[in-house]
Amino acid sequence: MDTYSLAQRLRMARAYRGWSQTELSKRSGVHNMQISKLERGITREASSSTLRALCQALGVSPSYILGLTEDMGVSAVDDEPALEELSHV
């Protein structure tokens, strides 16, 4: 099994959706600077609530993001960000 870092897995999941970091930020409620730092490996750890929000927005399994499986566990995602997420952008 290839071992990719959290940064690589997050970037691959976002690329799978074809989203920018800004789009992921809108959909997850996670600040785009935090997403950028996670994807560049500057921040190597994230809170469980941040990881949950990112996985939920991307429609991928937390096990994939954490490197426990190679299966993204892809599920459907909403076409539009939730209204409460847009209110603080």
Structural topology:
Blueprint: H1 6-17, H2 21-28, H3 32-40, H4 48-58, H5 62-65, H6 83-86
Walk me through this protein's architecture.
Helices cover 54% and strands 0% of the residues. By secondary structure, it is mainly α. The protein has a single domain, classed as lambda repressor-like DNA-binding domains (434 Repressor (Amino-terminal Domain), Orthogonal Bundle).
Identify the CATH class. Answer: Mainly Alpha
* Overall geometry: globular
CATH superfamily: lambda repressor-like DNA-binding domains
CATH architecture: Orthogonal Bundle
| Estimated share of beta-strand residues | under 5%
Count of separate structural domains: 1
Query: CATH topology, which one?
Result: 434 Repressor (Amino-terminal Domain)
The main pleated sheet reads as:
none
Query: Which regions contain 5 or more consecutive residues with pLDDT less than 50?
Result: 82-89
- Number of helical segments with 4 or more residues: 6
Structural class: mainly alpha
How confident is the prediction overall: mean pLDDT?
87
Q: Give the termini separation.
A: 38 Å
Features:
mainly alpha; 89 residues; 6 helices; disordered C terminus; single chain; 434 Repressor (Amino-terminal Domain)
